[in-house]
Specification:
Oligomer: single chain
Number of helices: 4
Radius of gyration: 21 Å
Number of domains: 1
Length: 369
């Protein structure tokens, strides 16, 4: 039995029932406990301005975040998006310790897949995540996950697609896992290695892989369309190295897609990026989460970094005709505080065998509190 078959064997509603059981056991304890501290409130506003063939002038993101901790050791977090002037529930979860190096999380949160996918959009040195990340990482869904580790960290969870989670049979279900660690993590630099896997069963709802060129709202996309009764096994390799003023990241992703009465087909993508900090104030590394944190500029100074990225995404394979795309771009980021920055980027996006490419001038103002 393959992992994809195991996912398919999960009965409809089992993930939801497990989630409700965990939350039902944890919430009464949390609510009866005295808060460790008052809740923390954070937010961000991202505004994109029009450039060459670039939509903009509207808020890219208006995010509100609330998080806290109870004396029982249970953390909680909620996020809401209002970028389209409509309040959109993004994330809510409870996270508690099960032992010295193991924790459990239940709610709606990001599935453990990819370094780019785990790092916040307000932190990554590009206006948008890479096309391979858009295509092959599942984002936030309802689920239950165990995670932990000491020097070597791991995440393992079961998930149901948020948009389908409360529907009858046919919703997408998945098992996702990530293993990562930093063999070198000290004053001389950071070397991070990671491996992630996601096994998904789309049932009648189907699976879909799609990506844009790295500019929010752009009409150019590659897209497989919905594939009913599809199953997919996706692997992601990640490598990051930081030393001195340089940071480099490489990711490789591939998905084996199985359609009814057809042989398996493989689609995939890769991205390579480099960042140079002119004042040695590069992004902080968060080893327990396996992701990048914020740049911390010296008070009263502006931290400047240069970033460049190459990405290739191929969603064509036999009867799957999603298209292929090559992207490259470069730009400057000016960090005024740990939560506020100005981004000036150029990107070239070329669909393979589809004529002229797309030139994008990306200008973003980001403010946070």
């Amino acid at each position: 039995m393959t992992p994809a078959d195991l996912v398919g064997g999960v009965r409809p509603g089992l993930i939801q029932k497990t989630l409700f059981l965990v939350v039902g056991l944890v919430v009464p304890q949390a609510l009866s406990a005295t808060p460790q501290d008052g809740p923390e409130f954070h937010g961000r506003l991202m505004i994109d301005f029009p450039g060459l063939d670039t939509p903009g002038g509207d808020p890219r993101s208006l995010r509100l975040k609330i998080n806290g901790e109870f004396q029982t050791g249970i953390d909680w977090k909620a996020q809401f998006e209002a970028g389209s002037f409509e309040l959109d529930f993004k994330e809510f979860y409870l996270d508690g310790a099960l032992g010295n190096h193991t924790r459990a999380r239940a709610g709606q949160f990001r599935e453990p897949m990819g370094l780019d996918g785990q790092t916040s959009l307000e932190v990554i040195p590009f206006p948008e995540r890479s096309a391979p990340t858009q295509a092959f990482t599942p984002g936030r869904n309802l689920g239950v996950m165990l995670h932990g580790g000491h020097e070597l960290h791991w995440d393992l969870g079961v998930f149901a697609d948020s948009s389908e989670a409360f529907d009858a049979p046919g919703n997408e279900r998945a098992i996702s896992a990530r293993l990562y660690g930093a063999p070198e993590d000290g004053s001389k630099g950071i070397l991070h290695l990671g491996l992630a896997a996601s096994f998904r069963n789309g049932h009648s709802t189907g699976l879909q892989f799609s990506a844009g060129p790295g500019a929010h709202g752009s009409s150019q996309t590659i897209d497989t369309g919905l594939m009913p009764d599809a199953r997919a096994a996706t692997l992601a390799l990640e490598l990051a190295h930081a030393s001195g003023q340089w940071t480099t990241v490489a990711e490789l992703m591939a998905s084996s897609v199985h359609l009814p009465q057809k042989d398996g087909m493989t689609i995939g993508g890769a991205q390579l990026s480099a960042v140079y900090s002119f004042d040695d104030e590069r992004s902080r590394w968060e080893p327990e989460l396996g992701r990048w944190g914020r740049v911390q500029p010296t008070e009263g100074k502006v931290s400047v970094e240069w970033a460049a990225r190459l990405a290739f995404t191929d969603l064509d394979a036999n009867t799957i005709e999603g298209g292929a795309q090559f992207d490259w771009g470069s730009g400057l980021n000016l960090h005024f505080t740990s939560r506020s920055r100005l981004m000036l980027h150029y990107q070239r996006s070329q669909r393979i065998s589809a004529g002229n490419g797309l030139d994008l001038l990306l200008i973003r103002v980001q403010m946070g509190f």
